[in-house]
Every structure is written in C-alpha cells, then in structure tokens.
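thought: user wants a sequence for this fold. calling inverse folding tool.
action: design(structure=
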C-alpha cells in the first residue's frame, strides 16, 4: 500500500488519474484508437510538462497499479485500472 500512497502524493499524478476517469470529456481530440486509452502526447499536452516528466509520472502510476498501458506502433496509450483502484480504496477504507 505504501507504493500506491506515494504515487498519489503528487498533484500532477492525481490530475492525470482524474482526467483519465472521463477521457471523453478531458481528451475530446482522441482519434480512432480511443478504445485503447489516451496517448502519452495528449496527456503531456494537458499537463504542460516535458515528455520525460510525464513519462516518469505515468510509470509511477503504472507501477502502483493505477494505470495500464497498451503499445501500438510508436504510441503508448494509458487507461485507468478501475479494478485495482477500487481494491486500493477498499483496502484504504478498511485500514483507516
């Protein structure tokens, strides 16, 4: 649970999770691969950070289990892992 809490201890990562909760509203410009999630480039644009910074944030969220990634060609798409997020929140509620 510590890794998950550390992942959530950053405002940008919290915003990314919030944006990905409703990708249609937050990333209306998604193209034909929308079913895969949201590409890194769109997340980077919205966050207003460098590619290396956003990649680091996404990797932390993925390691914590909050995001899943799908690679298609040169693009990587991210989406929330709702099952894992629900399990974490239930465990947090149980512990606290």
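)
observation: tool returned 96 residues.
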């Amino acid at each position: 649970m510590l890794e998950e809490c550390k992942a959530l201890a950053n405002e940008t990562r919290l915003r990314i999770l919030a944006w990905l909760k409703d990708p249609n509203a937050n990333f209306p410009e998604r193209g034909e691969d929308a079913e895969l999630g949201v590409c890194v480039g769109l997340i980077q644009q919205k966050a207003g950070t460098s590619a290396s910074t956003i990649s680091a944030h996404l990797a932390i969220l993925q390691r914590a289990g909050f995001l899943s990634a799908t690679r298609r060609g040169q693009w990587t798409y991210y989406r929330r892992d709702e099952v894992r997020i629900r399990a974490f929140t239930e465990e947090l509620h149980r512990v606290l």
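thought: summarizing for user.
answer: Here is the designed sequence. The two ends are 12 Å apart (CA to CA).
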